[in-house]
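Bumping my old thread because nobody answered last time. Still need a sequence for this structure:
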């Protein structure tokens, strides 16, 4: 959704409040696609702070379906977003590129709410998602989800470089 910034640029100190819907359907992070399950409207306040500079503040919540880091079961993760950005509308597009100002959410004199929310989602992306605090994960041998079932695989995992030492200990057990 695009919001026209011209209303806020009319006079210094002018504040414009807006509510916009988010139309993001999926998030691509680390080469994987994650579906967006639910979005809340974005509450925005755009304030002209002078010299064609705008302060953009807002908040929303986006729920994304992400696999658990241990057992790979899907988890609906609500990601609360709160942001405060400053946009210099006096800069031209080439000036922004030269200044390395990565405001991809400003298109001409419009604010692209979806691009703003998407970039904030990537910044606030959780590093680890668990389905529950005591998630047991999956068996590294057979792949059984240990939260649901137990498997008959050997619990002991020996580093192959230590196999010779294991042989020595096994000889002493037999005696």
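Sorry it took so long. Here it is:
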């Amino acid at each position: 959704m695009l919001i026209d910034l011209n209303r806020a640029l009319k006079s210094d100190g002018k504040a414009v409040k807006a509510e916009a819907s988010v139309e993001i359907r999926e998030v691509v992070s680390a080469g994987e696609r994650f579906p967006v399950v639910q979005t809340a409207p974005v509450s925005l306040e755009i304030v002209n702070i002078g010299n064609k500079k705008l302060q953009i503040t807002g908040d929303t919540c986006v729920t994304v379906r992400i696999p658990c880091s241990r057992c790979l079961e899907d988890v609906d993760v609500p990601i609360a977003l709160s942001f405060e950005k400053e946009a210099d509308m006096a800069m031209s597009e080439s000036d922004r590129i030269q200044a390395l100002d990565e405001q991809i959410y400003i298109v001409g004199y419009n604010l692209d709410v979806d691009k703003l929310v998407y970039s904030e989602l990537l910044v606030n992306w959780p590093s680890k998602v668990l389905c529950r605090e005591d998630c047991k994960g999956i068996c590294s041998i057979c792949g059984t989800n240990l939260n649901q079932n137990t498997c008959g695989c050997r619990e002991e995992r020996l580093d192959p470089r230590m196999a010779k030492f294991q042989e020595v200990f096994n000889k002493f057990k037999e005696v």
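The two ends are 77 Å apart (CA to CA). Let me know if any region looks off to you.
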